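B., you asked whether I could sanity-check this one before it goes into the benchmark set. Here's the sequence:
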Amino acid sequence: MNYYLRHCVWEITLACCFSCKYCGSAGGRARANELTTEECFSVADQLAELGCERVSMIGGEVFMRKDWKEIVGRLTGHGIRVNIITNGFLFTDALLEDLKRLSVESVSVSLDGPREVHDAYRQKGSYDRAVAAIAKLAGSGIPVSVISTLNEANAKTLPALYETLRDSGIFAWQLQACSPMGNAANGGIDIAFDPREVIAFVASHMRQAPFMLGVADNIGYFTPEEGSIRGNMSGKAYYTGCRAGLSAIGIDSVGNVRGCESMYDPHFTEGNLRERSLRDIWEDPDAFAYNRKFDESMLTGPCAECELGGFCAGGCRSYNYFVHGKLYEAPRCARAMNATEGIE
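And here's what the prediction gave me:
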């Protein structure tokens, strides 16, 4: 079977102005041996050669890397669409002009609750700077979205954050579950919120919101609202299983390739771009076996008994792995919770 690379999440540096309590990559300082500018150009060329359509560029904090503009330019020069995910803390008017000049498709800003909540996870003043960055982007015509990482505490603040975002001019708001990896594995954060409450929030707000509102791939699955809660209100936008290694990859700042950049563990490294070409890794018949060689017999727990288990393939691989180590069993499946409680 041929697999077509559509999307790459590329961590170009681990350097960051924060060290957030839930940072999955434990960002802060750049790695000593991060890819050079020329090596990054090679990565961009190889992504283009494989037909990659979009790159989501992350850190650390992307803007902490001095040559980020050159790397973005190499990607957009190939016609690859680039989305940058940022904490918004370093945002300036000059940076805004750079984004326009480079034809960056969109920017996503992390915002995890009202001021006191967001600042508690990052640092004092970070909320105000993030909100200011959102306003500058929205006013400039560059599409800007917000990503909120949810845990037991801040999931309760979604209504308040919605009021902040309602008139902000963003085009989308994505809610994702905090995964216990990196700093979140030892930061004392309770990640266990009820996904049904988040799904209910999305379902009750998505049609009135002046932006797309939805959940990420690690929240779900297959409650009655499923077809409309992933940023598409068609009623047909169903989760179709983890795409890691099927149509997506992750690349870290030293060139390690994984099926997804949220699979932040050496166990999932398929190769390094200093040792093998991206094509060689992508076309390796034994690579990304957890998804490319999946069949329903691998499902465990409630997922093995679910009539939709083969369709969703047990949910998000990364979240499953870091929560309880079982790749093919969603630990907080909303459908399974409803079934246990006899809710239809």
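One thing to flag: The mean pLDDT is 93. Otherwise nothing jumped out at me.
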